Amino acid sequence: MRLLPFFIFLISSQQYFVAPSAAQTSKAHSWQATCTRYRNTPLPSSLRAPQTPNSKSCISVSSYYGLGIPVDYTEARRCAVLERAGVPTHAVTAITPQDAPDRIGIEGPTMLAMLYGNGDGVPRNKDLALRFACEAIDAGAIAPPYYSEPDNPDEDQAIFPKLLSDIVAAGKDTRAHPNEKIDMCNYVEQQGRLLSTCDYIVRLREGLQRRAEIESFADRFTPDQKTAYLRLVAAFEAYAVAHDDNEIVVLGHYPSTARWERQPLQEQQFIAEMRQFESGDLPTYTADEYAVADRDLNAQYREAMQTAGQPNPKLPDDIPRPPADNLRNTERLWLSYRDSWVTFGRLRYTQVSAASWLTWATHSRLEELKSFGELLSN
Fold first, then answer.
1. pTM listed for this prediction
2. What CA–CA distance (Å, rounded) separates 138 from 371?
3. Distance between CA atoms of 153 and 146, rounded to whole angstroms?
């Protein structure tokens, strides 16, 4: 399953500075006083000693949220200490220098504030959590409380006083919802810089859940069926990516954006189809129906090939029609995907004919090419 690495999929978000109101200035003094008090909280020796991560790719966010690896708060803490100290990790060396972890917003001192504020893998320690939270604002990882949305300049949307108060409340067990963890992503509506990062975390989590479900189907298959199924999944992924890259690059839908938006839909459709077939709702087409579907698909494909790469006066000059080679390469990958369905289907659902699987797959591709043709002609 193609999942973009966390540390190379960071979307920059603009922040806006608005002059503080009197109420905001008062709150600013409040958090500044808190930070003055806790900024010099002594660090335990375990946080001053060199840290050795358990994994080669030391990214605290991945270990904390379980992004592609098991949740491991101890590892998240080790990585966060490295990030705070500026020690190069894979998260740093794989991106440009100006995108150091403290700009991501949830790594380094911010992560340590969450760990100690929640007591995740360590005893809860309010003083240390407040120290690290204040370090985060000093480093610019979190905006100070005079930032607000441009359409609500008078509304205090300060994330930091809320974070400080939540840490204090957690230490006293006086929160309204004691089981709710301190999580910077709970404040994303108030913090533009974190919005894209937290949105990616949510999307990646959902993607991992879909991947787990896709893989879980194989648990009920025989060895031969499982081998064919895994080949089917690989063919599906290759075709889905090619379809986005080669056929959805029109009307402003560029490859990365299209894939990011469409990949969940494609995976959800695949899961829905597998659920349908596993429940016994199987295709029942005939050889004659396949002949009709194949004829219609060939006609639609020829029409798309004739217009591919040709100028379209209805589109801006910088959004050309995809070249014919794009369509040809995608069609080849679709044929491999179709044949993988036939092979797997014949092994798993022996009562369904090859012609029925071919017809079902061809109908799906025909609808895609029709939609693509409409985009090309608009």
1. 0.67
2. 51
3. 10
